[in-house]
Amino acid sequence: MLNTPKKEDVDENILLSSVEKWLEIKVKPYVAKLEHDDIYPREMVEQMKEMGLFGATISQEWGGLGLPSSTYAKIVTKVSEVWMSLTGIFNSHLMMAAAVEKFGTIDQKKKYLPLFASGELRGGLGLTEPDAGTDLQGIRTKAEKKGKEYIINGTKTWITNAIEGSCFAVLVKTNPEAIPPRKGISMFILEKGEGFSISRRLEKLGYKGIDSGEMVFKDFKVSDSNLIGGVEGKGFYQAVGGLELGRINIAARSVGIAKRALDEAVRYSQERKTFGKKICEHQAIQLKLADMVTRYETSRLLVEQAANAYDSGQRCDLEAGMAKYSASEAAIENSLEAMRIHGGYGYSKEFVIERLYRDAPLMAIGEGTNEMQKIIIARQLIERNKI
User: Fold this and answer.
1) Mind listing the pLDDT tens digit for each residue in 123-132?
2) Is 367 one of the catalytic residues?
């Protein structure tokens, strides 16, 4: 296994170099089969545990690497260039960890964060329901308090790591009568047990290898000590707060896809010949490449800006929204243009292009649709420029 720097002396260049070597040696040769057969990459997960990726953004105080968002985004981009699915395995997990570290009680932090950082406990966020996606206030999963316990009933769907994960930060209603509804929403740390089951594994167009499932709670009992922060009614804000990091992650994934599509297109355009010359010498192809590289660089810089804003501690839903919107659209457009440049080969499973083409659309949906991002961007723009 490749060595990674010790927590106390994490250096960005060394860490990124280590990730690159791991991707080249341990991931790249095996991606095509695992992805096409939709096989969970267990060996790679163990390797990511050894590298500390499950504790990437968790503070060193709790056993994590304590990386800033700016460094983390670069790791996500590099991994996504090779296989985007891997980033979901540790990012959803880190969003759960961020909710606990940011809002949890000291006892919750002591109990869970070291286990999250080591990867001994892995999981993600349980927000989406069959009738509630972007509108989190519309969730129906309920938690009824009885003594020192809560009884939880409901269903969560499209949950990343649902099958292979063991612990989740789950959004529920503790007061269904609250007005506005967000004031009656709470978040719990839930470990799998009796009454907590996975009803099915969801099949997807892309994003293969990683498991997406439906979680069902039927009279599931959990101690009131697992209520994040120890106070009811804070869950909506805890979930929304975590989405800023999630959107930066989605944007970084998108940059990786856009970059890989660009690289493949540039390489192929210099190998393929038509009408007696390389296709990169045809003006029509040059125009496509110019658009592709501009989209990629624009998105990369927006992600960098959003990550820096997040690291500074300032509110950054405007920056995160712009990065997510721009980068995800760049990923979609670059993957399509790369397919067109490759012609029939781009439609073949023997080339990486068709995978990029299938993976990219998720980036425009995950962590809030791009339509919602536009609304957030506009509202924050007005808020910051009031006259």
Assistant:
1) 999 999 998 8
2) yes
